[in-house]
Amino acid sequence: MPAQLGSCAGIAVPGRAPPPSRGRHRPYPHPVTTTAPLLPALTARVRAQAHARSAACPCGAATLADRPDATVVRHGEVVAKAHAPGTDADALAHRLAFTARLPGVLLPPLAPAPAELHGRLVTCWPYGTPVDPDDPDAAPWEAAGALLARLHRTPAPATLPPMRGPAKAAAALARLRRSAPRHPDAAPVLRAWAALPAWARGEDAMPDTGTPCHGDFHLGQLVRHPTAGGPWLLIDVDDLGRGVPAWDLARPAAWYACGLLPPDEWTRFLAAYRAAGGPAVPPAGDPWPALDVPARALTAQTAARALAKAVAAGRPLDEVERCLVDACARMPSVAPGGPA
Amino acid sequence: MHCPKCHAPMHTYNRNGVQIEQCSGCRGIFLDYGELESLTRLESQWAQPAPPPPAAPQAYPAAPAPAWGAPHGGHGHHGHNRHKSFGHMLFSS
């Protein structure tokens, strides 16, 4: 059930580990422990939290994810997440503190600070019901647009780190360069990426540093809490931070532009965002001057990720993945718009 | 005036600009000369076909899309049956 996991990117890039954290937290040792000892310890942690009043566990545990960048386990109503090795402890603490202040928008953590377990930072969360991956037609596009608008309208504290969207996209492109530099479909993706402004490639500061952004929005980042009919909330704080709010709209925008997301779903999402006063795009008229650069970046990121996975699996691109590469190939004929 | 049928007092009302008298007892209605024609005329105007409604909007108004987007305004591979690969993409970073 990957939907509860939040981010599934976080591709590790050798030589581009996050900068060492300051303050009382020490950088985590590298290479970190494998998940083998972590998983039972994390399971014990979440079990202890979920069933604090009883030695018996009535619910049965579930490992929701065990990936290199995140291990997520659930016991009852509690979910524990071990964040990616090398996660900046201070940055995560600031992201967590901001999340705790927006309980109607972001799922609030159970504890205000991350704990440490087997060299990994661990946070605990209430369990929320995700969007059903088998029924994406039931996706709550209106709620998603309204939640992002409310997030973007919140003043960003200066302590909030930068949003990690461009850095994550850069990591996906770096992975493509390593894994399939000479693949014929890599060239248009790399060209489209190279034409983007430096901020969108994670190589310069973003032109907006005052707006809190989710940084990795997709349908897996929404849960209902409380689980029975509760409101939709955003989850996954790993990429949360100050940045260009159009980035949070840009993944659905890219899907729509590539002909993958039906126009009505895109329109519902955008209309709800505008109705809730979201500042990323003008309240009316053509939103694309604001969306163009982030949507190109997300298209290139998604294409790079798809191509690297296809090459690793020794298979050709499927027709959806082909749409992304084709869109990248068309980009050079139109100069990027929006903030330079 | 009083009702010619039950002799109860009649009260005057205005219906669409036409003065009519209604009996407070038997609820019968008395129309002066020309008032029936006035009501008939009003009725025929009411029954006339309404002006044609504006052209039915498209199922979804054409949303703007970037020039590098898929041809035909973004009507690419979506459809009634969503592609499995895209279904997964909706939930992925």
From TrEMBL, chain B:
Superkingdom of the organism of origin: Bacteria
Xref: InterPro entries: TF_Znf
Domain (Transcription factor zinc-finger): residue spans on this chain: 2-40
Biased composition (Low complexity): 57-70
Stated name of the protein: Transcription factor zinc-finger domain-containing protein
Residue stretches in coiled coil: none
Listed Basic residues bias regions: 74-86
Pfam families the record matches: Zn_ribbon_TFIIB (PF13453)
Organism: Streptomyces griseoviridis
